[in-house]
Design brief:
Elements: E1 5-14, E2 17-27, E3 32-36, H1 43-51, E4 60-63, E5 66-67, H2 73-79, E6 81-84, H3 96-101, H4 108-121, H5 123-126, H6 138-150, E7 156-160, H7 168-183, E8 187-191, H8 195-201, E9 204-209, E10 212-218, H9 219-224, H10 226-233
Parallel strand pairs: 3-8, 3-9, 6-7, 7-8
Antiparallel strand pairs: 1-2, 1-4, 4-5, 9-10
Length: about 230
């Protein structure tokens, strides 16, 4: 299968040890692919390699058919890759509006319109648009990190553990927004340890074990075979 984001033969090594070993899959537009695995399975290393923050060996890495492998992280973002790292990493001293604005290039009027679009997508942020980011709740900071990544109109959005540290009801709101983002045409690759929550919004899932693909397929079918899935995630 080909997708908006195509990954083939991707490997990441640390000191000669393989953290990600010859991983291949695609993320189609308008779909959520859940990247699952126990802590240390290689999920974060894979995302960092795709966005260009981690050196990797790869046979093919393409976005909309255009090769990304030789591009820097900045150029990959310009090409249409969005990334929300683990821990959110918003600019604590900037306001909500400023956090979104810094991600957008171009004239003032289109930038303001794009900020307004992001605040409309996340109503919790609209009421806090003038607040400094450090004053937001963890859930609001996660929404802000996603809004900042979306502000550049990415074709594919990569997220690393977006539910980490969030109360269940807040995580549910964040995940509902991710489903809506995919339904709007974006290819979403979601690395998540909370398998049940990720599978609930995903179309497909890829399970990593010791850096290798142990299982890949329909998210709903995978969710139904809970015993087999839990054995791989243990």
């Amino acid at each position: 299968m080909t997708g908006v984001l195509d990954i083939a033969g991707l490997s990441v090594s640390y000191g000669g040890a393989r953290a990600v070993d010859n991983v291949s899959f695609a993320v189609p537009g308008g779909r959520v692919v859940a990247l699952l695995g126990a802590n240390g399975a290689g999920k974060s290393s894979l995302l960092r390699a795709v966005i260009g923050l981690q050196a990797a060996e790869v046979d093919r890495l393409a976005l909309d058919g255009h090769d990304l492998a030789a591009l820097s992280a900045e150029r990959r973002a310009d090409a249409g890759l969005g990334y929300v790292p683990e821990g959110r990493r918003v600019f604590a001293g900037l306001t909500v509006r400023e956090n979104i604005e810094v991600a957008i290039d171009g004239p003032a009027a289109p930038r303001a319109a794009r900020v307004a679009d992001m605040l409309a997508l996340f109503p919790d942020l609209k009421a806090k648009s003038g607040e400094r980011a450090w004053r937001l709740s963890g859930g609001q900071q996660q929404m802000l990190a996603i809004a900042r990544a979306l502000a550049r109109r990415p074709r594919a959005l990569l997220l690393d553990e977006p539910s980490l540290g969030l109360a269940p009801q807040i995580a549910a709101v964040v995940f509902a927004r991710l489903r809506a983002i995919a339904d709007d045409g974006v290819a979403v690759l979601l690395a998540e340890q909370n398998a049940a929550r990720a599978l609930a919004i995903a179309d497909e899932a890829v399970v990593l074990t010791h850096g290798r693909v142990a299982l890949c397929g329909d998210a709903k079918q995978m969710s139904a075979d809970d015993d087999a899935l839990m054995a791989l995630l243990a």
